[in-house]
Specification:
12 helices; three-stranded antiparallel beta sheet; about 350 residues; Aminoglycoside 3'-phosphotransferase, Chain: A, domain 2; alpha+beta; about 45% helix; globular; Phosphorylase Kinase, domain 1
Length: about 350
């Protein structure tokens, strides 16, 4: 019996696997869609032990959040959340001989996309994230554990980058090094605001990129927000800024021509319209003030992380070729430039929503 079959049998010992295949385009965990001979479908996942050093805490957070969402979601919302499957003895995870954690969750039938086609999809994503934040604002104490200490702490990413930066600048990546140096002073923006209580902290998703929103098969309606391993205490602007970063780059993160990378104002307005319908009351004045800056900073931070991972040998983000994370960094930096070039116009959009 393969390790894959052992993992599945731990949860459903009486079910037989008919077929399975890799699912999604995630860069961290390994995920498969499993179909049984009885015609049921499940999602089997192996957590990446190099990323999630405390998998028991990750799994505990996941169970608390999914149970809270299931208890508070209305049928009318059209939004659903997957169910964590337990073994016959009540365990929510299985550990293999290498120490890696496996889990089984219910399959949600829908379509994942990597980039938005129109403003309706953008508004749907904004509404889903706003509903997610509003529901989790009432998550009972104690707070979730911080499964990824330092996640979205941009100054910390900068320090890690400087620790691995070669003394001699790599000629093929000098542009990235210069780009980061020119924006070094901006890296503390959200952390400084957090420390003085200027912006809102609560439970967040942690990685609300386009690919983590599940659409109906006609791609007109968001039916779920998946990949909840990064759910943790954080800043609303981490989520909102990161979501806008991903949504408003219509060509996605694997663009071949950097000159084509743009930050789309129409999609920006549509995401905000959807989000504010559900969650406007969660934002305090500091959140509104730093909203556009948060999008720029999340783009800069991801580019910094891609470039740092490239320098470290692509240990975190999966890469198909040695320079893929370098190119991913350049895409994010091109997005930062586009945001900077439209900063005044984006600020006006935010002010109009707040009025």
């Amino acid at each position: 019996m393969s390790i894959f079959q052992q993992a599945f049998a731990f949860f459903l010992p009486d079910d037989e696997i008919a077929e399975f295949a890799p699912l999604g385009s995630g860069r961290v965990n390994d995920t498969w869609l499993v179909a049984t001979k009885a015609g049921k479908k499940y999602v089997l996942q192996r957590l990446n032990p190099a990323v999630f050093l405390k998998p028991a805490v990750v799994q505990s957070n996941l169970c608390r959040v999914t149970e809270h969402l299931q208890a508070n979601l209305s049928v009318e919302s059209g939004f659903s959340v997957f169910e964590v499957r337990h073994s016959p003895t009540g365990a929510s995870a299985w550990t293999d001989s290498s120490g890696a954690w496996w889990r089984l969750i219910s399959y949600l039938d829908g379509a994942a996309i990597d980039a938005l086609a129109d403003a309706n999809q953008a508004q749907e994503i904004g509404a889903a994230l706003g509903l997610f934040h509003q529901l989790l604002a009432s998550l009972p104490l104690p707070p979730l554990a911080d499964t990824l200490p330092g996640f979205h702490n941009t100054p910390l990413y900068l320090a890690n980058y400087e620790a691995i930066l070669p003394t001699d600048c790599l000629p093929e990546a000098a542009d990235c090094r210069d780009f980061i140096n020119e924006r070094r002073a901006d890296m503390r923006l959200l952390e400084d605001a957090r420390q003085i209580g200027k912006i809102t902290e609560q439970t967040i998703h942690g990685d609300p990129k386009v690919g983590n929103f599940l659409f109906s098969w006609d791609k007109k309606r968001v039916i779920s927000l998946v990949d909840l391993d990064t759910v943790k205490p954080g800043l609303l602007l981490h989520d909102l800024g990161d979501c806008l970063r991903s949504c408003c780059n219509p060509l996605g993160e694997e663009v071949q021509n950097l000159d084509e990378v743009i930050f789309d104002q129409e999609l920006f307005a549509a995401v905000l319209a959807g989000y504010l319908f559900h969650a406007a009351d969660l934002l305090q004045p500091g959140d509104w003030q730093l909203l556009v800056d948060s999008v720029r900073l999340m783009s800069l931070e991801l580019g910094l992380r891609f470039y740092s991972d490239y320098l470290a040998g692509s240990r975190y983000f999966k890469a198909d070729h040695p320079h893929q994370n370098l190119f991913r960094a350049r895409v994010q930096f091109a997005l930062v430039r586009s945001i900077e070039n439209q900063y005044s116009e984006l600020t006006v959009i935010v002010k109009n929503f707040r009025a």
